[in-house]
Every structure is written in structure tokens, then in C-alpha cells.
Amino acid sequence: MNDVLMILTACSVAIPASLLGVLLVSKSLVMVGDAISHAVLPGIVVAYLLSGTKDSIPMLFGAAVTGFLTTFLIDFLRKKWRIQEDAAIGFTFTFLFAIGVLMIALFAGKNSDLDQECVLYGDLETSILDQVIVGEYLYGTRAILQLLPLTVILLLVITIGFKGWKVWAFNPQFGSFVGIPIQAFQLVLMLLLSIHAVLSFESVGVILVVGLLVLPAATALQFSKTLAKTFWYSACIGIVSCVIGVFLGKWINISISPLIVCVNGLIFLISVLISPHKKSAVPNRI
Amino acid sequence: MDLSIWIVFIGTALIGISAALVGTFTFLQKKSLIGDAISHSILPGIVLAYIVSGQRNTIILMLGAFIAGWLATQQISWLQRKTKLKSDTIVAATLSIFFALGLAMLSYIQGRPDDGQAGLSDFLFGKIAALNIEDLYLFSVVSFLIAATTFFRYRVMFSFAFNKEFMISKGFSLRWNDFILNSMTILVVAMGVQAVGVVLMSALLIIPVLTARMLTYKLRSLISWSLIFGTSSSLLGSYISILGKNIPTGPCIIMVLSICAISVALLVRVPFKRKRIQ
Question: How far apart are CA A45 and CA A22, in angstroms?
């Protein structure tokens, strides 16, 4: 039973991550995604300090604010201060992350349940202990129940706006020419990304999220030729590596969330070796 | 002041100097995030060195870190040759694979009964107070190596940053220079993680030169300004973290650096200067 719960929890983190990752990879916004997943930390800490609990509503709010703040700051540094993009990203997320860590060290106290290690590593094994039981029936863990709505919303957003996403990712000039609100698509993506980061940090930690975002999508791109197929492949790879990771972790008795990312990485490296798309081939079509 | 405080100050100063020097060149190559990738990727090397040697010996840890960082840069360039993925995807993929490997190994150590890994989790956030005098000798050697390389190869690195075609036409090898820059980055990161930790090391590479870049457009003064900012803020940051009871060193240094950068930006008001570098 615990294995099933663990796999379900891991999948509920990995499926939205791998879907978001496809969008990030195809627009080459991966490092922005990485920056957001680091930068939600001060939002989480402020929400925790203000509300006093790890309740999700204030945290979601905090994460949304810091997520927007990150994208805004990166844009601001690039456009107003004329700093090249990589340095702008590096500055923004290290700055925000340092604020978060300092706030934990100064205010959160020794015996609170928010410490540096838990935020960094995340812990799938303890996150499944947080179960929601209503009248004898086990409905699932808190992580699953929180991430399920996000997954549904994400699926709706992707399917409804599929053509929009395509235009956004591959030909934004055309999009703004025909009147598609390209900027709004970007903001929606960043909002979903920061919500995902805050909901999953207890299970996988803020740094490993980027692995779950980028690796399935990068693997899927080795085989697929269309955006829709990339979404399918990416989600499947995310699920498969969760299952393998959970059983491997049980078997050699080490922490599961890094193992899931390792399995993902292994699949990615193998896929590069056996990929039918070589560098010299014709460019990928959407 | 007693010896340990001097060790801390000299150690942070050395880290600040070498990080600012190397950071200038990675910034000019627009490869600042490679520093981020390397700083995450050396974690498995450190942990493996710890497992093999069984103690926290800085030379062995740095050796492990160097090998892991070198493997990471090799993986990045291999993926760049082999796949059509964009470079940010490749960097993020490499970073997360290595970091996850490091965390998995770390949890393996923590599961073992003979756990003496208390000093090891300091690598994630840095603990400058853990430095001792042998570390300081090693740091001096590494910083001297980096400074000497920059000094004697200044012209080559200048053209490597601004005009690669010119450099190749003069008969210098692109891969060799790339290798030198990468090795310097790895060495700095391996040295700096002890003070500021894995996660925030990239800031020490990026922020000083970013601040200096707002003040000047010449390479020589860029280097000098970033040295000034890097060194002084690392000193100030570590001083504050020693004064306070429970303040981790890394975030403290980064905060000082960021405040420095923000105040410089407000002072010079970059938007009104329309000149470009080069």
C-alpha cells in the first residue's frame, strides 16, 4: 500500500513537471524555470512566518507573488539595467534564494518544521505520511490531493490553448501579429510553474524540481517530431522513471526523490545514444 | 583577534579574489550559468571523495570536486555536439543529473551507522568557520595559480572573450582555452563551496562582475572593480556571519554582494547611458 501511495505521490509531482518542462524546453526558458523553483523559497518562508502553518493557501499566494517577482526582475534587469540574460537569471535567483535561507536561519527557529535541509532535499518518504483520511477511507496523501487539481488545470490549459502554445513557443512574432496575447501565455506558464514548485518542494525539494522539469522533456525531444507527441512521451517517461525510482529506492534503501531524477537522467543519456535524430539531420518541425 | 578569525578572513578574501577573476571571463563568454551547473555538479565528487577517504580532507575533497566538475563540463560539451537541444536545456539537464546523484550518495552515507557526515552537509550552505590552516595553504596555491594564469595569458583570454576568430587566426587553440577557463571555474567553485555552499557559489562568480560592468567598459578596470567588489563583500559578509549567532555564511555574503550591486545600479543609473561594451 505504501509503495502504491509513494508511486502515486511521485507521479503527481512528475506528471505536471514533465508537461511544464516541454513548454520550457521548447521556448528555452529552462533556466528561468530553475530560477523560479529556487526563488519561491522566500515566498514560502514569508507565508510560513505570517500564517504559522505549512497550510497551502498562504504558501500558494506567496509562491505566486515570488514567481511573478522573479520573471519581472529578470526582465527588468535585462531591459533596464542592460544585463545579459544569463547573468540576470543568476543574479535574481541567488539573491532571492539567499533571502529565503537567511530568513529561515534568522526567524524560523530550531524546532520549526521548516529547515534548510528539508527545503533543499525534500523527502518523499515523510510526505506520504501526511495522509488525508475521511471516515475510514484513505483518499490519498496531501501532496496528491494538492497536485491533482494543478494537473487537471494544466491539462485543460494545454489542450484548450494548444495552438496558442505552439505559436508562443515557435513563432511569437506571428502570434503578436495575429493578436494572440503572447505575454499572457508566458505569465500563465510562470504562474503554474511557481505553484508547482511550492506544492512539490516538500516531496522533492527546490533544486531537484528542475531535473523533473527538464529531463523527461529533453528525452522526449530525442524521439518525437511534433509538440503533441512530445507532451505524451514526456509524461510517460516521467511516470516510468517514478516507478523505477521508487522500487530502486526501496531495494537499495536510499532517498527516493534524488533516485527518480537519477533514473530520469539515465534514461535521457541512453536516449541520446540511441536517438534517431542526429545533430546533422533536418531541424525539428513543430 | 585570534588566529581562527584571521584564517576566516584570509580564506574568504582568497575565495573572493579568485571568484571575481574567473567570473569576469565566464561573464564575458556569456557562460555565467556554467558556473551554476559546475557548482551543483561537484556534489557527487565531494561525497564520493568523502566515502572513499572516510574523512574531511580538503585536498581529497577538492580532487573529487575537480573530477566531477570536469566530467560535468565534458558531458555538457558532449551533449552539445550530439544533440540538437538548446544549451540551457543541456546545462540544466547536466546540473540536475549530477546534483541528484550527489544527493542520492549523501542519503546513502546518512543511512550508514558510522555517520560522521556532520561536516559534509555544510557543503550545501557553507561554513567558513570550519576552515583550518592547511586549507588556507591550499587556497593560496589555487588562487596563485588562477591569478598567474590570468596575468600571463591576459591577451589570449582577452581575445578569447571578445574575438574568437582573431584568436584562432593567431594560432591559439579554442578547445585548450576552453579547457583552461573551465578548469579555473571548477577550481574556484571547489574552493568556494566550503565558504558559501553549493547552491550559492554561482553568485560569487556572477554578481561582482555584474556590478563592475555597470561602472566601466574596459576589461582592465572591469577586472579591478570586480576584484574590489568581490573581495570586500566576501570579507564584510563573513564578518557579519561571524558576529551573528546562527547566520549561514553563504547567504550572508550573497546579500552583501546583492545590496552592493543594487546600490551601484541606483547610483550610476545605467538606463541613461547608452554606450555598449567593446
Answer: 29
Residue B249 counted as domain residue = no
pLDDT (0 to 100) of residue B278? 46
pTM of the model as a whole: 0.88
Domain count, chain B: 1
Domain assignment of residue B190, yes or no: yes
Contact B226, B209 (CB under 8 A): yes
Q: What is the mean pLDDT of residues A14-21?
A: 92
Q: What is the pLDDT of residues A240-265, one digit of tens each?
A: 999 999 888 888 878 888 889 999 99
Helix A142-160 vs helix A162-170: crossing angle, to nearest 10: 80
Q: Say whether B121 and A117 touch across the interface (CB within 8 A).
A: yes
Give the dihedral of Cα atoms B262, A195, A104, B201; nearest 10 deg. -50
For residue A279, pLDDT beyond 80: no
- Whole-complex ipTM: 0.88
**Domain limits for position B63:** 3-199
Task: Find the CATH number of the domain harbouring B153.
Answer: 1.10.3470.10
Q: How far is A254 from chain B (nearest CA, A)?
A: 5
Model pLDDT for residues B202-219, shown as the tens digit of each residue:
888 999 999 998 888 888
Q: Which residue of A has its CA nearest to B35?
A: A90
Contact A90 B36 (CB under 8 A): yes
**Chain B CA closest to residue A248:** B104
Residue B227 lies in a domain: no
The class of domain A2-274 in CATH terms is: mainly alpha
Report how far apart the first and last C-alpha atoms of chain B are (Å, whole number): 46
**Nearest-by-Cβ selection for A277 from B84, B107, B205:** B84
